[in-house]
Amino acid sequence: MDWDARARAALCAARGMAHLHAAHGLVHGDVKSPNLLLRHDGDPDNAAALSDYSLQHLFAPLPPSARAGGYHAPELVDPRRPTFSSDVYSLGVLFLEMLTGKCPASGTVGVDGGGAALDLPRWVQSVVREEWTAEVFDQELVRLGGGAEEEMVALLQVAMACAATVPDARPEATEVLKRVEEIGGGRHGRATTEEEGSWGTPTGASP
To answer: In the chain, fewer beta carbons within 10 Å around the N or the C end?
Structure first.
């Protein structure tokens, strides 16, 4: 997937979550890449859709080793009791997965010493802290990005704000949607005209 395809998928994921939260008061509870279904009907406004929402209460609680590693917010003890804030955390991890090309459930980076699930937000934060931000991005994405580095960095900032360790530091889903719509000046969706708030840089996310 090139940058345009990933950016549109990120926008659709943000729209889906904002709709669930704001219009219906529903928590998704299981945001992860297998639950983001890509569409190939040529409609850029409907490039992807969130699936399997609000099903978490139907299942017994899973042991920590069996959970969707890397996507769940650190404060979430029982996956049957997700919150709006834990949904936003998972969305941030999904954005990071799109940007880095690394699956948080795979343990592909050895920061945890082998088979453990990758703590993708903390890995990204550690790389950015060393001022190696360019090393965060999927090299295939950089090659196909077509000069979209500023948009990629902007989505990285949104993702790190969503994946803050402290729940109260995370933006609401509607705020996330506004920020993602603004990336690229509306090239990937409807741009907002409201005053843009400051969420800081990736290094400002909670450690």
So the answer is: C
